[in-house]
Structures are given as structure tokens and as C-alpha cells.
């Protein structure tokens, strides 16, 4: 094993050689920022996807007047004002290097729009440029679809919002699920992976685990540009299409008020959840734990809901299944604020409110994304009641 301190100068030296990174050394030809058709590079076609634009929330309206100004400012700060349109690419004889999520064309360039492993501290912006050898590639014949996501496909949110929709986006561009001989993704073994892939028409026999095969050369590859952490109209539409039956069934029922519990979680729990729910229950709320439910069951539950109260977390991905006009109140962690679900709520015409939790003893330092919190139960319930009264 070569240390990073030694790898940098050695990879730089190997980068000057006449050989391809398919054999040794890092990619030799730098980064292609905006790929266009180029037969010698293996770029067959690249085009923009309809609905492939993400939208940050608009200026504050009356629906969000309940959010405290400081929290609202923090929510705005987490949103990217300039977001590239989604693109889909069709390539031949290109390679995928999973450790840095790099798509490498036949000219030995990393294709920027279709690669995800960009780091400020890496040479050239991607640690693939610091590799001494990318390992011998696994050659795949036929057509492959890339589903890998840098933000971790093991997480329900990242899988649902960033990986799975690529199947439907490819279909919208002319490829059916059955047109792919291979689907490239790392470690898709959880029940929600199996369920959603089957729903999308992908059987397990076609999955190629990129964790086990980190360097792959594809005869043909179809890839979608980075969907990371944004609410694209196209991805929301894809998920609603997959679970259209559950959405229709839920929308036809009387609205429910649900409080999403993290009682089955090992981190980021509300330590006084029982106290909070005791205040919400008289307002007509039912407590639900989603960990044991299928995606179809979660879709039906959120489609039926008229009000959702939940701590920030992957369970709120299910907002994509909500009926228009439903209300969501998100409980934010005291040292970690993200406006993503606000963005999703706006795209779907949901009403959105937010409150902030409190730091608990022992959680003043460390990773704020894993810390537990407490909630002012009486204050949060009064807030929800005020929002419900409008």
C-alpha cells in the first residue's frame, strides 16, 4: 500500500507517460467540462433532460410566515442558487472508476458532468488524478446503466432521490429498463433497494456491484449527470410515476395527521419524543415508525397524510408522494440545518413550517449530523396548532 504522500509525486510522474490509465497511472488528458459528441472519445450523444432543472424556494410567502427569521436565513443559506440542468449521456468504450465516481472517456479524460467525486483538495479536483494504478478494469459487453451515487446509495434519501430516478430518466430519453444488460451500483442489498429496482423493472441478475468491481470498462454506458441534493422536477415525477397506484389510493382517503418517529434509530433521535407526542396526540396525530415498512407502504401513508410532523431525516424523502396542499412541519437539529425538504415541499405545492430542536447534554460537539436533540414539546405543539389554524 502506497501512502498518499508518495502517491502524489508518483502519479504525477506516471501521468506524463504515453500509456492510458487503463494500464497504469492516472487519467492523462484532464477534465472535459461539458462533453459533446465525439466519436474518438466514445461520446455518442449528450442532451439535456426535460424537467431537469432544480428550483430553490421562492422568497418567503404567507405559508412560511411561521418560520423564525434566523432559521429561515439558515435554510436559504444551504441552497445552491446556480444549478446545472440535468443531462443524459450515451457513451462507448468508456470506463467508470468507482472510488472517485469518475467516468473516463476513450481520450482518457474525466467527464465532469457525469462524474461526482470532486474534492477541493484533490489534484485536478478528483483523486483519480492521484492514483498510481486504477486496477485492471472489468470489461462489460452490451449496454450498462450507471446508478451509483457519491452520497451513498445505502441511505434511503440518496437512493430514492438520486439513484433510482435514473432508470425513469433513461426511459424518458428512449431506453427501457429491459434495454440494459447491466446496472452499475454499489451494495444495493437492502429491502428498499430490491423493492424499488423490481418496481423499476431491474432484476438482481443484472446488477454489477461497483464496490466489488471498482474499475469497469463498458462497451456502452448510459449515465445521467449529478442529481446530488436537489429537487428536480424530473426526479420527483419519476418517483411519483413508479408509485402512482399508491398515490392515487392514498389521495382518495380522508387526510391523516402523522408524526414520524425515529424511535427505532440509533442516532439523531428526539430524546423526549414521548413528551412531544403526548402534546401532538390531542391534535389528532398518530405516531408512525417507517423502518419496517416497504416503500409502497410509505408512499401510500404519505399520500394519505394531510399533515406530517417529522424530524429532519431520510423519511422526509416520502414527501414526494404527498398530495398537493398537505402541510409538513420539519423539526431541524440545533447544529445542522438543511433546506432540502423545504425545496421539495415547494415543488409539490405543500405548505411548509419548521422548528428547531435543542442541544442535549453530551452533544455539544462532534458530528452535528449524528447528534440527538430535545424539543420544547409544548412550544412545538403550540406551533403546529397555530399553523393548522392558518
UniProtKB/TrEMBL annotation:
Coiled-coil regions, chain positions: none
Chain segments annotated as transmembrane: none
Residues of the Glycosyltransferase 61 catalytic domain: 156-329
Key words, A-Z: Glycoprotein, Glycosyltransferase, Transferase
Stored InterPro entries: Glyco_transf_61_cat, Glycosyltransferase_61
Domain of life: Bacteria
One Gene Ontology MF term: glycosyltransferase activity
Identification of the protein by name: Glycosyltransferase 61 catalytic domain-containing protein
